[in-house]
Every structure is written in C-alpha cells, then in structure tokens.
Amino acid sequence: MLTVSNLSLQFGKRVLFDEVNIMFTKGNCYGIIGANGAGKSTFLKILTGKQEPTTGNVSLEPGKRMSVLEQDHFAYDNFTVLETVLRGNKKLFEIKEEMDALYAKEDFSDADGIKAGELGVIYDEMGGWNAESDAQTMLSNVGIKDEMHWQMMGELENKDKVKVLLAQALFGNPDVLILDEPTNDLDIDTIAWLEDFLADYENTVIVVSHDRHFLDTVCTHIGDLDYSKLNLYTGNYSFWYQASQLATRQRQQANKKAEEKKKELQDFIARFSSNVAKAKQATARKKMIEKLNIDDIKPTSRRYPAIIFEMEREAGDQILEVKDLEKTKDGELLFSNVDIKLKKGDKVAIISKNSLAISEFFEIISGNATADKGEYNWGVTTNQSYMPLDNTDFFQDKSLNLVDWLRQFTKNDEERHEEFMRGFLGRMLFSGDEALKSCTVLSGGEKMRCMFSRMMLQKANVLLLDEPTNHLDLESITTLNNSLSNFKGNILLASHDHEMLQTVCNRIIELTPKGVIDRDMTYDEYLEDKKIKELQQQMYS
Question: Which protein family is it in (predicted)?
C-alpha cells in the first residue's frame, strides 16, 4: 500500500533517519513513537511529500488516495465548514469544480457536453452525488452541529476548527490516513468516537500521538523511532512498552538460560493477549507468540525522568471542604452549587465539558482567584502543591539559571547547595551545563519537568494538577503516571490522558453549570454509566 525504501534524512552532521525500510499495509494502524526530537512529525512529513528525504523514496500504490490531518488551523478560513470537508477528497472536489465550470459556460458546446458527461461518470463512480450528505454526516459524528455547516471556518473557535479538519481528513474513506496528534484539543466524546472509528477502519492508518489509551485502542503495530531507525513491532503501545521493559530486564540477567527467557516471554504474551478488547489486535498478538524473539526488541536510547512525589507529613482526616461554590467568567456560568468534601486517600479526576471551568476551579481553591459565591477550606494538616495550566509567569526572570530557579522553592539549607540542586536537576534530565542555562529559553517539555521538580521539593500531601501531561513525551507521561499511582496523599487531577485518569483516580467529580456529579468509581466506569449520561444531559441543558 505505502512503501518506504532506503530512506535517510540528514541535517548537517545530524542523521535523523538512516536506511529506513518499511511497508504499511491495508487493515493495520501504525503508531509511530519515539523520544522528543527523534523525528516523528518529520517522518510523517516525508510520507506526505511535505519534506524531501536526503536519500530513498516513498511510494504509494497507484490509484490509491492519501489523506492527511491538516495542521494549519487557518488554511481554510475563507471557505465554509462543509466545503472544507469536501476539499478533503481533492480529486473528487476538482472534478466537481470542472463540471460546474463547464455547465456555467455561456457558449456550452457539444464537446463540453461530452466532457461533462465523462466527468459525471467518474464523479458517480467516486460517490460524488452522495459526497455532501456524507460530509455532513462526518461533521455530525465529530460534534459539529448542523447549523455550523454553512459558517465560514474563520468564524469558528479553534476547538471546532480542529474537529472540522479531522472530518476533512477522514472524509471519503482514504486508502492511507496520516494523523499527527489527532486527539489534541478534542473533547472526551469526540476522542471516544475517533477511537471506535479507527479501530474498525479497514484501510491503512499511520498516527503519531502521546495519548497512550488512544494508541492502545487503535494500533495493531508500533513503529519505534530510535537510533535513526524505525523498528516495527506487532501489538499496541502497552504491549510494546511492557515487552521492552521485559527485554531490558532479561538483558541484564546475563546468566539466565535461554529456555527460561523464552518461557517468561511466552507467559507475558499469553497474559497480555487474553486481555485484549479488539478482535483485530487479539489476532495480531496471537501471531506474536510464534514470531517474537526477545532479541528483536532493541535497547532504547530513551531517558526517563525521576518524578517521585514524597510527603513531608501525612495529612489528617480533614482534607478539603467546598460549599456552594459558583463562578461566572465573561458572562458565562462555569459552575454553581459546587459542594465537595474530600476524604483521606481520595485521588479525584476533575472533569467538565468546559475546560475553562476546570482551570478556574483550580485557580480558586489554590488561592489565585476568587469565586463569585461560596467558600472552601483546607484541613490544617494539609499542604498543597499546584501545577497550573499556564506556567508562563514562573519563567520570566532572565537572570535565573535552572539551579537558581529551582533554589527558590526550598528553604532546606542542605537542598539549597548547588551540588544537591544539580544532582536533582540531573535526575530530571538536565545534565551538565544544561542545569546552568537560563530559565527563559526552555521548551514546553523542559518547563514542565522544572515544574515537577518544584512540586517534588515542596513535599506536599495534596497535589493539584491541571493538564500535567501537556508538552510531555511518552516517557515522561509514563513516569508521571506511575508516580501519581504510587503517591500516598490526595490528588486532584485534570487531564485529557485517559489512561492516567483511569489508573490514578478512584473518584470522579464533574463540574457543571447546575452543580457537580460526584462518584466513587473509576474513569471507565463513569464513562460507561448510562444513568450518569442521562444526568449530564440535565446538568448541561
């Protein structure tokens, strides 16, 4: 279907890809993973022809169509929503335009009639006469209401533009579908719909994503970009991750017999395969038992930060009590009638259909904003550490290097020594001279690792985290997930990372304009509960 042959890409002395050979076939979904800077998005650009390789080529089977999720959210601002989706099938749209131009001619000739007829046959074979209704159905599926279909793209909010561009990519059943971070800025319902759509998709999908639940749900294969190579493995992300961890352990056990290693691997595969939800993935993993050799999984160059939250003291039974909290912003009622009483050990997922409501709630209970009504009280034995959605204000002082920046957040004399600070930063992947660079030149991911360092030094017994996976690579997300799962204190967590909410949280609190929905259950149980769905309709109507 789509073949990559002897692909190399070099920028100066840096080799990004070296002799990559891979064939993407029909009926499979390939998740491309790799550390930040490994070249995932660049690889997709080469596949789509937006980036030329140094050597090698990419070939699409003749007659097949490739569709790509558009990253420029302003590219279609001068078109209607419906036309934007229709333009997703470029050939079909061009045929329609050519036919319309012919029929619009004042001197319409017999030759024009013959040409228009020929185009009409092709248009019919491509499903053109149903294209507009198909496009409208796709828009409805991603949550774009009927009345918005004739609006100009430039009039839409960014969150709606993202949905329209996704509908454009999916429109017309493309033979090869390429998606770079498709879940970014999508709401929970649209992500769930997309997961189901792709899990049943019969053509070829190639996707880059930092959403582990998404990769687990849709992927039949994982392509791991590491050491300038793309190594392909059958199975989803969790299978690859756990198999790679097993491979690392087995390499460290040099004296372990080959038979014991093989038995351990087979037990692992059998255990993993029995837990599969999708039939397509189950079939793929059964083949894995016969094909996979532990030596096929290569050592990784990835580095995992040491994110470890410890408490200076344990909290008592009084954690947090919120009474009748209400907030309106810019004329919009974000939430009201918010009554919450946290129990010791609660790890709470804070969710809402309005992300602004979540962030405003966090800002209020952290003391950075004021509610219009109501009150909140923290227990006297609690101390909180807050990770805000926007950390810009923390990185304004150009005079501070990372050592000095981090030193602000501890009063412990031993911790304030440069040796301790540099060692601490080293565990957070700021090694050597990196610890001395200015705090104002950091990437988004580096800022997040600094913010986690700050939280770790505070040794709080209550953690408040508003979208803590933003800008993180999969390695940091996995480490953070494990750390939050192991944390003994209380957590209030807002995140689009489905896997993190499911594995960390034991309670779900949803903020709505008419009050809260509060349940002691897992995130998956909450999403699947029919009574909660009925209640949501009432609370948001």
Answer: Belongs to the ABC transporter superfamily. ABCF family. YbiT subfamily.
Residue-level pLDDT at 254: 65
Determine contact, residues 75/185, Cβ cutoff 8 Å: no
The candidate with the shortest Cα–Cα distance to 131, out of 100, 88, 175, 102, is: 88
Residue type, 106: E
d(CA 150, CA 79): 9
Paired with 231 in beta bridges are 224
How far apart, in whole angstroms, are the C-alpha atoms of residue 306 and residue 479? Answer: 7
Name the band, by pLDDT with cuts 50, 70 and 90, for residue 35: confident
CA distance 135 to 84: 9
Tell me if 440 sits within 8 A of 395, measured CB to CB: yes
pLDDT in tens, 184-228: 888 888 999 999 999 889 999 999 999 999 999 999 899 999 888
Mean pLDDT of the chain: 89
Strands 29-33 and 204-208: parallel
Backbone angles phi, psi at 440, to 5 degrees: -90, -5
Q: Residues in the chain, how many? A: 541
The closest alpha carbon to 192, from 218, 156, 222, 158, belongs to 218
pLDDT band at 465 (very low <50, low <70, confident <90, very high): very high
Q: How far is CA 423 from CA 195, 399, 417, 429, 446, in A?
A: 41, 21, 10, 10, 16
On the question of pLDDT at 279 being above 50, the answer is: no
The number of CA neighbours under 13 Å toward the Cβ of 29 is 27
Q: Are strands 320-329 and 373-378 parallel, antiparallel or unpaired?
A: antiparallel
Q: Show the domains of the chain with their CATH numbers.
A: 1-64+175-302 (3.40.50.300), 320-402+443-540 (3.40.50.300)
Percentage, residues of the chain above pLDDT 90: 66
Taking the C-alpha atoms of residue 293 and residue 215, their distance in angstroms, rounded to an integer, is 23
Tens of pLDDT, residue by residue over 216-263, are: 999 989 999 988 889 888 888 988 888 787 777 777 776 667 677 777
The conformational region for residue 459 under phi > 0 = left, psi -120 to 50 = alpha, else beta, is left
pLDDT (tens digit per residue) in 68-116: 999 899 999 999 999 999 999 999 998 988 888 888 888 888 888 888 8
Mark 276-291 as b/e (b = at least 16 C-beta within 10 Å).
bebebbeebbeebeee
Q: φ and ψ at 256, to 5 degrees?
A: -70, 135
The owner of tokens 């791991």 is 224
Whole-angstrom distance, CA of residue 311 vs CA of residue 483: 13
Q: Which residue has the tokens 């990437």?
A: 443
